[in-house]
Amino acid sequence: MARILITDPIAEEGVALLKQAGHEVVVQPEWKGNLLKEHIGAYEVLIVRSATRVTADILRAGKHLRIVGRAGVGLDNIDVDTARKLGIQVVNTPGATTIAVAELTVAMILACLRHLCAAHASMQQGRWDKKALKGAELYGKTVGIIGCGRIGQAVAQRLQAFGCRILGYDPVVQEAPGIRLVPLETLLRESQIVTLHVPLTEETRHLLRRDTLSLLPRGAIVVNTARGGVIKEEDLLEFLETGHIACAALDVYEAEPLPPDHPLRRSPKVLLTPHIGAQTREGQVRAAVDLARKIVDLLKS
Residues 229-250: what's their mean pLDDT? Predict the structure, then answer.
């Protein structure tokens, strides 16, 4: 039997699976930072989502720690290098929320094209802005997908049903069904819509900034459901203000939660959501169960 600590909420189905396997499960969502560091020494397994930062200090304090599990895709809140040096296994669930993020991405593209947020707001305010809200069809548009892994390919699959021409850029992926892989510059120059599906690394940080944003055709749409740091937000705002970019839909930000006074909140050309890409009931159950199964198997070895 292992002692398992969960510091971010996960679906009960995953917790139940861990208990059924005979392990002791402690759920303490308020244990963060120094408080987590103080208690982690009593546990063999730590399970987190995105709210808990698993720093080097916390990992070193986990004298009995064998596994750190992330119920989700990214690992940027976990010091993976330190974990590896300490012999602690780090596991996640990269495929569990693919559908959820892909569906949100397509929804955001459609919302931008059809001005859905502005239309809803105008109706709530008692107006009837039919002529002012003329939008555009997704059919026939060229969509550039930056990052052609699981989520990028899932987005492409859904966009094919809309009759889109789909370009892709990925420095690692060599082949992706339904996507014509091209250099990044080509993708930016030819895409009316660009959607990002890359992890945040030193290579992808501020991938979209003034010089790369300038390559987009005037009136382009930018969607980001990946990680906030891949877009330089101040440059994006500049291009929105000039009209070079018609609309941006963002689910992720350089600082999260997004500060209440952030300029992005005041832009009428931005659709904002609070990092809800993976927030579907089905996706969260899948993530919790997948992670629990991985941990149970690792603890047997």
Answer: 98
Q: pLDDT band at residue 96, thresholds of 50, 70 and 90?
A: very high
What is the C-alpha to C-alpha distance for residues 75 and 94, in angstroms, rounded to an integer?
10
| Average pLDDT value for residue range 199-224 | 97
115 catalytic residue (yes or no): no
- Classify domain 3-94+281-300 by CATH number: 3.40.50.720
Contact between 48 and 77 (Cβ < 8 Å): yes
CATH of segment(s) 98-272: 3.40.50.720
Q: pTM, whole model, 2 decimals?
A: 0.90
Determine which one of 23, 227, 233, 254 is catalytic.
Answer: 227
256 given a catalytic annotation: yes
Active-site choice (150, 209, 275, 293):
275
3-class secondary-structure state, position 68: strand
3-state class (DSSP) for residue 105: helix
Q: Please say if 197 is a catalytic residue.
A: no
